[in-house]
Amino acid sequence: MIYLNYAALCPTPQDIWDEVEQTLATFGHHLYSETGVAWYRHTVQACRRKVGMLLHVEDPSTIAFTANASTAHHGALSALHWNPGDTLLTTTHENPSITRQLHALEHDGVHRHAIHPTSPDAFLHEVQAHMSRARVKAIVMSHVSHVDGRIFPIHDVAALARAGQCLVIIDGAQAVGHIPVDLGALDCDAYFFTGHKWCEGPLGTGVIVTRDTFFRHPACRAFPGNMPGAPPASRFEIGTHNIGLIAGLARACERRHQQGLTTQHQTALRETARSTLGATPHCRVVEWHGSQAPGILTVTGRPDRDYGQLVERLESEYGIIVKGFVDYPETIAPAIRLSWSSGPTRQDVQTGLSTLAHLLAS
Question: What CATH number should be reported for the domain holding residue 253?
Fold first, then answer.
């Protein structure tokens, strides 16, 4: 199998699974005895520190563990008061699970505006224009587009939001573990991501990081049920978590931090893919006039082609796994996304590209 769908799910290395099993085995000796509870809390704090190192977060108490990115996003939205007439800004490049939650706010009279990004400057101009004529309560958007890997100027968005007392909530699912992420430099109020994508962590893991600006914002709800002395971020940790999975995610983040986010291999593969598919008849590489993440490349072809069938054929006949955007509500659909981390060899990627180019040109 030639796997080119890392933006959906990255294979988890064996040492991460070993960390999960060893942590659960250790906890199994104590369970919820006084010793076990103390060990559990100590382990969770150690895991927060490991995640914080990757994200350049100095205060681990701002980090909360969740089941996935969608759960973290739901928690952030639920922590805010939404009133009829409030405006929420987002983009046309958000993951469907995030978009569904944003749509739900419209039933409460919240106005949702999805900006179609064409370039960083044009996007920032649109954000500023919306903020000047509407009461924008929050901007909810991706750091890196899952559609085609474009990197959004989050720091500049946050600067505009500060002037309008607007919250900035960022989906980092396609960023963390893929490109360098410094939350201190980005200056957003809340940032969340999932563990099973570019971090190469286990399924069922996620993180949300919240700054005090999030909890001090007038729209933030009070949480009177919080345990005395518990950090504000802990309100997102609902119920008892799987300490093994948390440890696995923390180890994956620590691994990424220790190895460093070297992107030369990914960038080289992307340039090869861009060159090969860009020269293919009836094929166009989807990009914007701005930065692109190194592990994602998306192409479109003839609009009359059955892309669902093409993706199925790639898997069934050639063992090549890619992501198809068939019914995606975007102007680029139908399209095919290829994504890779450090795993695929150049030969595997070239084989996949040659096969895809042949099918697109036929």
Answer: 3.40.640.10
Q: What are the start-end ranges of the H helices in 206-298?
A: 212-216, 243-259, 264-278
Q: Using CA atoms, how far apart are residues 234 and 335, in angstroms rounded to an integer?
A: 40
The conformation of residue 173, written as its DSSP 8-state character, comes to T
| Domain count for the chain | 2
**DSSP per position, 297-336:** EEEE--TTS-HHHHHHHHHHHH-EE-EEESS-SSTT-SEE
* pTM check: above 0.85: yes
Question: What are the pLDDT digits (tens) for 232-263?
Answer: 888 898 888 899 999 999 999 999 999 887 88
- Specify the CATH number for the domain of residue 354: 3.90.1150.10
Residue 338's DSSP bridge partners are: 297
Last residue of a domain, one of 259, 276, 299: 259
Per-residue HEC secondary structure of 12-35 comes to CCHHHHHHHHHHHHHHHHHCCCHH
Task: Give helix then strand counts, H and E, for the chain.
Answer: 12, 13
Q: Is residue 9 part of a domain?
A: no
- Where residue 239 falls (left for φ over 0; alpha for ψ -120 to 50; beta otherwise) is left
Residue 227 burial (CB < 10 Å; 0-12/13-18/19+)?
exposed
User: In which residue are the tokens 């009177």 written?
Assistant: 224
Residue type, 180: P
Domain termination site, one of 199, 226, 259: 259
